């Protein structure tokens, strides 16, 4: 039998607990921090947060063990378990709310996501216990319990300040852009004209075959080259910014924290821009679409470099590569446009 069908209605406190945690989770997804005028101690915050996470992990383990074999807990014991878990969950969410946006939006988002993941895990565990037959510890219950542990363990790997949080964002963006570049390079290296070996000798050059839906023409490949150059410039911007943040990034003042968040936010726009450009490069190529996406990505990269230039992470040595990459963006944009115009 499941907890739902047990005697003494032990499911009642569990269902109430489930509803409460779902509400806490939903509030955490959208809730604002409790801003205070006093000095915020980030080190104390992490110490308290980690203790709160450990408490949730322990309470989830107790819950799972209590429902791992007969006999089921009594309704009274179920209420005690539920109260204890709810207390630990409320403590975790309360401590999360302590973290003010002034410590960095990027940092707060990552702490929020980790907190919500724990609450999701506890929710799933409760749902499994309420629905699973109580004969022995089910694989689903084991998996759900492990999910809570895994979500709690993630806190040990969280960035400890906004500088570290921004570096996490940049790293993920570099990986996405790198994948897009590698995919188009792979496609180009494998793609061949399927009709190349059956081309009639007397076919006139000015009358190319009409079916170009599955391969790139030589003109297509010429247009793709500067597009690839722009995509690689995107990676270079992200990599160079990563180095600059590591060397010069500072989370010690509100202004610098805000600048780091601005850099993280615009960096998230680059991978969609690269993806949009990459997608329109596959045959059959629509040159107007290519030109549109090339222009959009170039404009975004120029804006990105301008934000870098005006931020505290840009010193004299960084200014050199900022200027170089601005030139690379302009060069590839103009080259792509010129090649497209030649064909129109």
Q: Can you tell me about this structure?
A:
The protein folds into 2 domains: 155 residues, Up-down Bundle (A middle domain of Talin 1); 161 residues, I/LWEQ domain (Up-down Bundle). 72% of the residues lie in helices and 0% in strands. It contains 10 helices and no strands. The protein is elongated. About 2% of the residues have low confidence.
How is this fold's topology laid out?
Blueprint (H helix, E strand, L loop, with lengths): L10 H20 L11 H25 L8 H24 L6 H27 L7 H15 L8 H29 L27 H31 L5 H26 L7 H23 L6 H28 L1
CATH class of the largest domain, anyone? Mainly Alpha
Assess the beta-strand content as a share of residues: under 5%
Based on CA atoms alone, the radius of gyration comes out at: 28 Å
Question: Unreliable segments (pLDDT under 50, ≥5 consecutive)?
Answer: 197-204
Please estimate the helix content: over 70%
Silhouette: elongated
The figure for the number of domains is: 2
**Secondary-structure-derived class:** mainly alpha
CATH superfamily of the largest domain: I/LWEQ domain
| Number of E strands | 0
Instruction: Please name the CATH architecture of the largest domain.
Output: Up-down Bundle
Cα end-to-end separation: 72 Å
As for the CATH topology of the largest domain, it is I/LWEQ domain
Order of helices and strands: HHHHHHHHHH
Q: Quick one: biggest sheet?
A: none
Number of helices: 10
Mean pLDDT: 90
């Amino acid at each position: 039998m499941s907890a739902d069908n047990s005697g003494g209605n032990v499911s009642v406190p569990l269902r109430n607990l489930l509803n409460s945690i779902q509400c806490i989770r939903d509030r955490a997804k959208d809730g604002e921090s409790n801003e205070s005028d006093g000095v915020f101690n980030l080190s104390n915050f992490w110490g308290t947060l980690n203790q709160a996470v450990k408490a949730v992990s322990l309470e989830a383990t107790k819950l799972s063990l209590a429902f791992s074999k007969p006999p089921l807990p009594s309704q009274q014991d179920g209420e005690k378990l539920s109260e204890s878990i709810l207390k630990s969950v409320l403590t975790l969410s309360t401590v999360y709310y302590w973290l003010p946006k002034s410590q960095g939006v990027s940092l707060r988002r990552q702490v929020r996501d980790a907190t919500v993941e724990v609450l999701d895990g506890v929710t799933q565990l409760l749902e499994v216990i309420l629905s699973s037959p109580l004969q022995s510890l089910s694989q689903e219950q084991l998996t759900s319990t492990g999910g809570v542990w895994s979500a709690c363990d993630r806190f040990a790997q969280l960035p400890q300040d906004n500088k570290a949080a921004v570096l996490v964002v940049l790293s993920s963006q570099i990986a996405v852009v790198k994948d897009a570049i590698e995919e188009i390079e792979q496609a180009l290296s494998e793609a061949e004209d399927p009709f190349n070996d059956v081309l009639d000798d007397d076919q006139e050059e000015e009358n190319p075959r009409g079916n170009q839906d599955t391969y790139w023409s030589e003109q297509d490949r010429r247009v793709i080259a500067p597009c690839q150059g722009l995509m690689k410039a995107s990676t270079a911007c992200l990599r160079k910014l990563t180095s600059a943040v590591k060397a010069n990034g500072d989370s010690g003042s509100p202004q610098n924290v805000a600048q780091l968040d601005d850099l993280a936010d615009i960096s998230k726009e680059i991978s969609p821009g690269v993806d949009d450009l990459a997608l329109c490069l596959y045959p059959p190529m629509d040159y107007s679409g290519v030109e549109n996406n090339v222009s959009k990505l170039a404009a975004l990269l120029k804006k990105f470099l301008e934000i870098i230039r005006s931020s505290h992470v840009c010193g004299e040595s960084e200014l050199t590569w900022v200027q170089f990459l601005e030139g690379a963006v302009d060069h590839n944009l103009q080259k792509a446009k010129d090649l497209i115009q030649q064909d129109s």
